[in-house]
Specification:
Blueprint lengths: L2 H13 L10 H18 L2 H23 L14
Length: 82
């Protein structure tokens, strides 16, 4: 991956940190997440797309493990500090 794409991916990863999402809803988090994902994929060259998709799958799994994987009916619930 080129440096610009790596930098954008890193900014995306940092943006998923809990402190950015306290007081917002799970739905807002996943909407933002999807927008960022689409924007990164649009920037990727065909050569970088597979590696980027792998990174994005790992980031999705990390977010799920961090507690953002919630049932659809929780999309309006506010993310609270632990």
């Amino acid at each position: 991956m080129d440096d610009a794409l790596k930098s954008a991916l890193r900014a995306f990863q940092l943006g998923t940190r809990h402190e950015h999402w306290y007081g917002k809803t799970y739905g807002q988090f996943w909407e933002w997440f999807s927008e960022q994902e689409r924007a990164l994929l649009a920037q990727a060259s065909p050569e970088d797309e597979e590696a980027l998709r792998e990174e994005l799958l790992e980031l999705t799994a990390d977010c799920d493990d961090a507690g953002y994987a919630v049932p659809d009916e929780w999309s309006d619930r506010v993310i609270q500090r632990p």
